[in-house]
Amino acid sequence: MPADFFVAVAKMHIGEISQPIRTQLGFHIIELTDSKPARQMSFEEARAEIRLIIENEKRRTALQNLVRNLSRRTEFVRNRL
User: Fold this and answer.
1) Rounded CA gap, 14 and 33, in Å?
2) Distance (Å, whole) CA 17 – CA 41
3) Which of 2, 12, 39, 63 is the right S-S partner for 23, CB 3.0 to 4.6 Å?
4) What backbone torsions phi and psi does residue 15 show, to the nearest 5 degrees?
């Protein structure tokens, strides 16, 4: 979850609906329907989230490498009219 969500939710009470919140993913409206105390997740509970983080990091690295490689091969030509 984006950090902006945690900041917004920390200020809310159960049943409350937030104002629009802007994150890197877009705009969101949050309704707090329940609250549970924080606890440490087991590895099995966190496995899917860990996998997603690793996959996203691989995609980000691949995209950065692609942009870097394309930039090296690109020749910018300035047309003078």
Assistant:
1) 5
2) 27
3) 2
4) 90, -10
Asked if residue 20 lies in contact with residue 29, where contact means CB atoms within 8 angstroms, the answer is yes
Per residue in 21-64, pLDDT (tens digit) is: 988 888 999 999 999 888 899 999 999 999 999 999 999 999 99
d(Cα 16, Cα 8) in Å, to the nearest integer? Answer: 11
Tell me the CB-side half-sphere exposure of residue 71, using CA atoms within 13 A: 6
Tokens matching residue 32 = 């707090």
Q: Could you tell me the two tokens for 39?
A: 């606890």
β-strand pairing of 21-23 with 26-28: antiparallel
Query: Which DSSP helix (H) or strand (E) runs through 14?
Result: none
List residues bridging with 31 in a β-sheet.
17
